DNA sequence: GTGAAAGCGCTAACAT
DNA sequence: ATGTTAGCGCTTTCAC
């Protein structure tokens, strides 16, 4: 098996120094055009691919952004990934994605991997557990997206996320406008998200002059294993005529349960949108996050911070849009 | 901003040579236990993370597998990614995923990126266009998954994919068993996949003693822009009482069109499964691919080839499973 | 059991 | 316009 082609091989073949090869391949203006073309052809013919690791080590920087994702099977996050990839590519960065499956220890490994690969910065959407970000990250630039780190340290980092309070308020208001008198909520297991979405829910009720009832405010487990039971609880026992699922995975679990129940008409709402909601047998209202914009904002901010590390930490809140399927 | 901590800093702090640090951190048996523990503590305290790029360059290998995906928004491929990540992690490899959005030029860039990052091997599920794999890859180990390279060169590489002929045959047979007398097919734009799925379709018809009719065998564009019109064509104009979508993206487009049409009952079938098919207003039969197994097979084979480059190229065919939602 | 020195592939001063 | 040299951070002989 032929050894890997290096710049040395190209230099030997072309009869010039390695430095000239390097210059020619990097389009340095100071190498003669004829030489450059000759060298590029030789490199091509030899099947030469520069060793990016060696390059990165020499120039002391990479063009890699690390991205930590809690659940790659979740449609919301695949859209995030795509938006991040696009924005990153446009800025000349490549992306190292790691899926943690909502496991804290995998988040720690993911971060380690990214640091070892010398990521220029990281985008974190996992933030489940007790990871000590400050200690792990050192001074690697980081932006948190969607899921936030613990309150104490959140303000040290840039954050990009949807306006949960407003989005949920608008969503619940819409359910009420459509006739719901008693809207139950199955909230998210992610703490800050849950707090904000609950707040929006309460606001909508207050504005509509409807009472709060703790009995119809329940919280899903991370794996949604209790959602089926809660769905029955709210729609049957508690006689809710409106149900809000605080994210798309919860809604999925709710939908799986509904056929078992024999229910009078009720209003259904979900934070996060899915294309296939169009196919459901009953209408559904969603708060659709501006995912592309979230991804782009995160990347732009991260790159800004890479280039200028002492920017003040900022929070970016983007508006959700109410959609009726 | 504090400079990045290197092995040199740890050596200075510990009062030993860099070589000893390296040995200690790599659990070399020849370093005294006390020394090792002392060094590991110092490294920890300093927030030292080894530079993986430098390491890779020195040992002349990486533990990175490149993965090229045509459409990260497609549920099928996110499952593939997850299976690959899991199998790779288990074998001590990390994964570099690049999404090409079905664009040939992005596939070429993706491959270049992987070669520059010195990927130990690549898994390719894109294979859309005229990429010259042999020239691009050189002797980088590669495994093709799901989408195959052009016929001429396919046999030079390992391939992992579902048994399309059998899967489609079983699927169509199921539709016929459920009462369909005239099953139309909207085939995939991916050529080899299409050929095989058409073959399975024909076989099922032959076994059932039903005639072939080219008028009800149509092909979707890559972007599915013609699927809506074809759906009407088959179900209305051609009066099919059965419709097979040859992949999940086609089925999605079909489902979006159905509400516009006012149809007598008919049988619906789809290659590829989706969880949310459960929620559809009418039953649907699918051929579910063994995705986890496909991913694991691909990774295992790739790693085998990395360790033993002159293995003969092989094809792995895995059976799909018929599911009725 | 530990240190000194070389070198992986590349680029950037500094020469010429 | 091109060559020479040094060195990025790490591991691995080869000494001791």
TrEMBL record, chains A, B:
Domain (HTH lacI-type) ranges: 5-59
Domain of life: Bacteria
UniProt KW keywords: DNA-binding, Repressor, Transcription, Transcription regulation
Record-level Gene Ontology MF annotations: DNA-binding transcription factor activity; transcription cis-regulatory region binding
Pfam families assigned to the protein according to its UniProt record, in alphabetical order: LacI (PF00356), Peripla_BP_1 (PF00532)
Alphabetical list of PANTHER family matching this protein: HTH-TYPE TRANSCRIPTIONAL REPRESSOR PURR-RELATED, LACI-RELATED TRANSCRIPTIONAL REPRESSOR
Record's protein name: Catabolite control protein A
Organism: Levilactobacillus acidifarinae DSM 19394 = JCM 15949
């Amino acid at each position: 098996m032929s050894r890997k082609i290096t710049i040395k091989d190209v230099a030997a073949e072309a009869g010039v120094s390695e430095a000239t090869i390097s210059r020619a391949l990097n389009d340095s203006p100071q190498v003669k055009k004829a030489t450059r073309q000759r060298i590029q052809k030789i490199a091509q013919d030899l099947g030469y691919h520069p060793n990016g690791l060696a390059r990165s080590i020499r120039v002391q920087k990479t063009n890699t952004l690390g991205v930590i994702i809690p659940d790659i099977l979740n449609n919301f996050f695949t859209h995030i990934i795509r938006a991040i990839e696009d924005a990153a590519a446009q800025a000349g960065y490549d992306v190292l994605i790691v899926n943690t499956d909502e496991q804290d220890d995998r988040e720690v490994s993911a971060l380690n991997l990214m640091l070892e690969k010398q990521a220029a910065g990281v985008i974190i959407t996992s933030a489940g557990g007790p990871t000590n970000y400050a200690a792990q990250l050192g001074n690697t630039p980081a932006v948190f997206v969607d899921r936030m780190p613990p309150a104490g340290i959140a303000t040290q980092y840039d954050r990009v996320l949807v306006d949960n309070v407003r989005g949920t308020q608008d969503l619940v208001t819409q359910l009420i406008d459509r006739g719901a008198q008693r809207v139950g909520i199955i909230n998210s297991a992610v703490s800050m998200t849950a707090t904000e979405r609950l707040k929006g829910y309460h606001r909508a009720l207050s504005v509509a002059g409807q009472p709060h009832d703790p009995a119809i405010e329940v919280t899903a487990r991370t794996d949604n294993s209790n959602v089926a039971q809660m769905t029955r609880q709210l729609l049957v026992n508690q006689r809710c005529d409106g149900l809000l699922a605080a994210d798309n995975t919860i809604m999925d679990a709710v939908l799986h349960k509904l056929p078992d129940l024999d229910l009078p008409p009720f209003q259904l709402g979900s934070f996060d949108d899915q294309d296939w909601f169009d196919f459901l047998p009953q209408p559904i209202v969603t708060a659709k996050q501006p995912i592309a914009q979230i991804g782009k904002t995160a990347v732009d901010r991260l790159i800004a911070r890479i280039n200028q590390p002492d920017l003040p930490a900022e929070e970016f809140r983007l508006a959700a849009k109410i959609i009726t399927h």
